Amino acid sequence: MIPFRIIIVYVLLAGLIGCQSGKMAMERQYYVLDCEPVQQEMALDASKPDLMVRPIAIASVYERDNFLIRRDVAAYSADYYHMFLTDPQDQITDLTRRWLAASGIFSSVSRPSQNPVSAYELNGTIEKLEIDLQNKEQPRCVFAIRFFLTTTQGQVRQVVFNRYYSSEKIPESIHANPIVNGWNECIKEILGRLENDLGEVVRLYSVDNESH
Question: pTM score, two decimals?
Fold first, then answer.
């Protein structure tokens, strides 16, 4: 006999991925990732270095607007009915800029079009953005990204920070809104960790430069 909880998961999953049966049909729904910085944006301090956040890339398997469902180690399916309103990598880029602008670490946080030359440049690649259903009784919202920070030493651009971040959250239910909320919590956790790490890197690098 199939456990009741597993039956519920399969039923909810059918709704999530928009299965059609007979006359049943669903309209496509569109979602936006969002998270608010922990602290309010601080006043600009011209004595601090500036930062350019370049457009964040995304691994090719996740380069789609549809929610991606992982069913097994190498088995995936795309949800036809639940999609990101805009490319997720563009949304993560904007969230990263907004978060770091509020951090107070940098004098300004800009796009390449706003400031082509900055003391620091932040690049990133999204390596996971999925709904993991390998364990049917405990689905997970998964988000992972690698960030690296560069600066100019003389005439050479060098990497001063390179780190992989990963977070998983268990959604309240297998419906689109709780899943998006789970991703938002993952992003918030990772950006908080990134803020702490970049603050330490910039502080140490500034001290090292002053000592030479």
Answer: 0.84
